[in-house]
Amino acid sequence: MKSHVSRRGMMGRIGAVLAGLLAGPVARTVRAAVSKGLASAGAAPGYEPAKHKWVMAIDANRCIGCGLCAQACKSENHVPAGPYYRTWIERYIILKPEAGADRARGETLVDSPEGGMRGFGQPSVAAERIQHSFFVPKLCNLCAHSPCTQACPVGATFDSPDGAVLIDPKYCIGCGFCIQACPYGCRFLSPVTHTAEKCTLCYHRITRGLKPACVEVCPTQARVFGDLKNSAPEDPIRQFYQNNLVQALKPQLGTDPRLFYAGIDKEVR
Amino acid sequence: MTNAITNLVVEAMPRFEGYVYPNEATHQPLWSVLIVLYPYITGLVAGAFIMASLVRVFKVKALEPVYRLSLLTAFAFLLGAPLPLLCHLGHPERCYEVMMTPHLTSPMAVFGFIYAWYLMAVLLLELWFDYRQDFVQWSRNTSGFRGILYRAFTLGVMDESKEAVGLDMKLGWIISIVGIPSAFLLHGYVGFIFGSIKANPWWGNPLMPIIFILSAIVSGIALCVFNYMVLMWVRRRSPDMRCLDAMGMFLFYALVMDAAIEGLDWVHRIYSADEAFQILRELATQKLFYTLNLGQVLLGTAVPLLLLGTLQVLRRRIPEAARKRMYFAGSALILLGVLAMRWNVVIGGQLFSKSLRGFMSYKMDFAGMEGWFMGAVLLALPFILLTVLVKLFLAERPPGRAP
Amino acid sequence: MPPQTFRLLLLVVGIVVTYSTARCFLTPPSFGQYGWFRGEALAELGAREPVYAGRKACEECHADEFKKLVEHGHKTLSCEACHGAAQAHAEDPDNPGVKLDKLHFSVCVRCHEANPSRPKWHKQIVVKNHYTIAKCTECHVPHMPEEAP
Questions:
Q1: Are residue A147 and residue A212 in the same domain, yes or no?
Q2: Which residues of C touch A198 (CB under 8 A)?
Q3: What is the pLDDT of residues B183-231, one digit of tens each?
Q4: What is the C-alpha separation between A239 and B54, in angstroms, rounded?
Q5: In angstroms, rounded to a whole number, what is the distance separating the alpha carbons of residues B62 and A192?
Q6: Using the beta-carbon criterion (under 8 Å), do A130 and C116 form an inter-chain contact?
Q7: What per-residue confidence (pLDDT) applies to B6?
Q8: Are B84 and B34 within 8 A, CB to CB?
Q9: Which residues in chain B touch residue A171, judged by CB atoms under 8 angstroms apart?
Q10: A 223-252 residues with CB below 8 A of C?
């Protein structure tokens, strides 16, 4: 059965199809414009994301490893029990070199029992063997070129306009690509929601004028938080940048972390 | 005291040595056996298609007996490929998002389109151009539901004239040519999904896509050898030795290239010995000892190289029965070896901490979404699909009559 | 046009139209508002309820304690660092069900136990050698740690 379609008929058919094709994007644009008008703001009423740029900094010289931050984060954000942490503390113990060895340092031991949530006990090595020991709080590094955002196939994780890297739990498909892509180990797959989860800088708090829970409970001001778009020179965050030489973690990967550390050693990864 | 013991048993803590980031201390790796199967299956697709295009594009006449089987193999496995992914997702019901709002900076998102392109524009089209004439004849000679099916497959184009059939061949040839880079893209992209992860030193390097493509070609050709021999055995026919010898030759040279590039990866890592080298060396020599050194390298590469190499050099001296056994053994070992390679890449990359200071260890479940059973089922499914396709489309009867 | 090409072209057009239509309906409305994500997600994430109240919330009712706190050594501490999450209490201060528990001396020990990993400027004691017969509050006032009770 050969199909005998006249030229006019064919043109008509193709024209109708093309019209249908074009209608799609036009309808979409109209829809987007309407919804932009209706959906006014992103966050809490009156809060405009574009007017803020949140950032955190860590002064490891001040961390005493009490673990209150990790514990507060777990309860504030209802993080599932188990090996799931939005923030945690690591303890570094750098040993003295072996007697007679021609080295500057001995071994480095790192631990983080339950993320440091319940504090740290005494080190397993005798105090005389320790050359240096310190605590390092870890969390999302707030990368300017976040590999996790780059990796997300659907747009469920994103850089918010105000400086946080967030996850949309209603859109995440749970593929785990972002978790693999994060060099800092700050993401996990929630066994409850089956979506990726991470530190959100307590977005629900900072958009209400509160501080993130970890910053709130830190007794020694080891965690410094501020708004780069609305801070005076005497604010803690500006003072931090002014007074400290800083490091970022894994700079060779090009993720450009905006989380800076003061007072950490080369052994910290 | 008793409490402590019972608590230990109940809470079977995940084991790790050294230091691992707290989020890495989970009971199961994030990407488990399902994500091992997925690159394996897509690799088989790409390789089987390359086998088919050797006939169409490079006109290797000796491989003609296995042409349609290769295409059907590629098709069956391509259909089976998304299943492990779907099963692995935390929210499979949202899988459409990858096609609706694809984040184009993500290799996974682009892969959705590459897969769709390959399925529709390459594989289905090539199958259609090759089978259209048969569909027309079968639709005439078969009654009932099957007849309607064949009629539907013709897409209404019932022309059997010489020009029409000639056009089918010509267009099929063009599609085959397009298909070769598409096949490379299909599996190279899967390699890129791993190769793009700079956070993981076992995965993130530029050789990854190349290694994946080459091992895909090797595994695909091996699968065609395997399937062909099994099919002939089931139908109580003797396989065409000229075809087998040709496949064996291509398999051997593909394996040589694959081994060379994988060897290059090793040499480069060992020589440049960067920050991650210490932990990766321990990973390769200790944690992955059985699957890597024994499974992938020895049984999966060295022994097949020996078998196939001997067959290349001494072909005329070796009796036919022995050759058949060597081809079968070689292809089976290669199939297992490439599966081991996927395992070593995927699971191996999750056995060490990104802090480069420790190792995790996992025990694979039997039941559950990422257990042995599920893995076996998903691996068997494409073979079952292929059986159905062979029954429907690969004739044993004289031409004109439907299988 | 040969019939094969025509039919296939029709199929292609059909697929593209189906895809475009599906995309129009299956893309969430606020998607793309701020970037490649659902704009509403910002509001949803911001709408979660806090569990910790923050220092300022405590100051509203407990101004006296607050005045003492900020003039002594624990001035950098948040009330909730020792007393626990207080949002439920701050919202409903008279409800005995959400009142905060009395504190145990383990709260003090948590920060002040001597540990070689802790910085030297931090006041720390080896607890088992430090007046173990008494509770901390017998000699120290938590809100004014330099003072005696």
A1: yes
A2: none
A3: 999 999 999 999 999 999 999 999 999 999 999 999 999 999 999 999 9
A4: 68
A5: 56
A6: yes
A7: 42
A8: yes
A9: 94, 97
A10: none
Sign of CA dihedral B358, B364, B365, B368: positive
Statement to judge: residues A1 and A75 lie in one domain? no
Residues 6+ apart with CB under 8 A from B200: A180, B194, B349, B354
Interface test with A, best of B88, B91, B104, B135 (most A CBs within 10 A): B91
- Give contacts of B 354-383 with A, CB under 8 A: 354-357
| CATH code (residue A257) | 3.30.70.20
- The answer on A35 and A65 residing in a single domain is no
Measured between CB atoms, does C93 come within 8 Å of chain A?
A: no
pLDDT tens digits along B378-387: 999 999 999 9
Q: How far is CA B32 from CA B27, B262, B342, B344, in A?
A: 11, 23, 11, 11
Q: Which segments of A203-269 are extended strands (E)?
A: 223-227, 260-262
Is A153 close to B23, i.e. CB distance below 8 A? no
Contact A137, A87 (CB under 8 A): yes
- The model's pLDDT over A139-188, given as tens digits with 9 standing for 90+, comes to 999 999 999 999 999 999 999 999 999 999 999 999 999 999 999 999 99
Which segments in chain B show pLDDT lower than 70?
A: 1-14, 397-403
Lookup: tokens for C43: 């509001």
**Polymer length of chain A:** 269
CB–CB contact A173 B97 (8 Å): yes
Residues found in chain C:
149
Domain segments of chain B as ranges: 32-196+364-403
Q: Are residues A2 and A71 in the same domain?
A: no
Which three-class secondary structure string do you get for C47-113? CCCCCCCCHHHHHHHCHHHHHHHCCCCCCCCCHHHHHCCCHHHHHCCCCHHHCCCCCCCHHHHHHHE
Antiparallel, parallel or unpaired: β A260-262 and A54-59: parallel
Percent of chain C with pLDDT over 70: 100
For residue A182, the chain B residue with the least C-alpha distance is B199
Q: What is the CA radius of gyration of chain B?
A: 23
Partner-chain contact C4 B171, CB within 8 Å: yes
Q: Quote the pTM value.
A: 0.90
Contacts of A93 in chain C (CB under 8 A): 117
At A24, is the pLDDT very low, low, confident or very high (cuts 50, 70, 90)? low
Let me know whether A62 and A169 are in one domain.
yes
- Domain of A20? 1-39
Would an 8 Å CB–CB cutoff place B323 in contact with chain A?
no
Task: Measure in Å the smallest separation between the Cα of B95 and chain A Cα atoms.
Answer: 7
Q: HSE of C52 in the Cβ direction (CA atoms, 13 Å)?
A: 34
- Residues contacting residue C10 through CB under 8 Å, at least 6 positions apart: none
Domain count, chain A: 2
Residue partners of C135: CB distance under 8 A and separation at least 6: C105
Establish if A112 belongs to a structural domain.
no
Cα separations (Å) of A157 from B106, B166, B259, C41, C59?
12, 51, 38, 10, 37
